[in-house]
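Query protein
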Amino acid sequence: MNGDTHAQEPRWLTDIRGDGSRRLIESRSRVIKVPAGPGAGKTTCLKRRVLRIVDTGEASRPEI
């Protein structure tokens, strides 16, 4: 083992710190509320949440 603590983490959790951020990214809830001040990482967490949803196949393809 090379000592890299991120080796086991999925890519959407890489460099994410804090339990609140991880809970937001990993939440399966359809509606979420994110009360936080400027610079708290809301946009980063929401982008990572979308990455998780796409990577895990949770997103469904819309019918056209």
The CA atoms of residues 11 and 52 lie 8 Å apart.
